[in-house]
Amino acid sequence: MALKYQRILLKLSGEALGGAKGTGFDEPTLQAICQGIKDARDLGVQIGIVVGGGNFWRGRTSGTMERTLADKIGMLATVMNCLAVSDMLDQLGVPNEVFTSFVMPQIAPAFTRKDALKAMEAGKVVLFGGGTGNPFFSTDTTTALRAVEISADVMFKATMVDGVYNKDPNKYSDAVKYDTLTFTKVLEDNLQVMDGAAAILCRDNKLPILVFDMRDPANIAKAVQGENVGTLVYEE
User: Fold this and answer.
1) Which among 91, 138, 200, 216 has most CB atoms closer than 10 A?
2) What CATH number has the domain bearing residue 103?
């Protein structure tokens, strides 16, 4: 089957790496996710990944700590997660490279668009750690920013539900799932797809977002081949 997307930017939540407990690393879960990434990469798609840090640190619920410092700790958590995903990809035989948004040469090279594209075009899965390098920006915004910078065809947002609903499907049995949405509706109806800054960045740069269920890692490969596995958000 032909690929619908040639280059994707995948957003993984940190909590997803923790499995059922949602904290730290759950190795079987990590392996399953990375196998899904491998299967998609083997189809020939170029893959970039942004990983959140919520399995280690939730900066906005860190009590009385000064916000910018809390966000810096969260950024470091995303680097740890990138290294863990990178190691599992290594174990599965998937070439990859980690870039960080700030200088830490003993860990990984700093991100530049040129270097990231060179790595992707060489067949490597590229991981972006450290958020934007600035406080107050979520990993959703980081993903949107990196996706635009590397000229991705689409941003994949992996979640724990099978798409976007008009209300929380875990609380309301009559919740209705959207197959497609516009960014305008997401913003006007305050649908909990991503933060507003990320939605506006994607809308203004005509970058579609596919929201899908990561509990089945095979959905990554299905999505790049155009199968309907979630909710597509775009602007007409």
Assistant:
1) 138
2) 3.40.1160.10
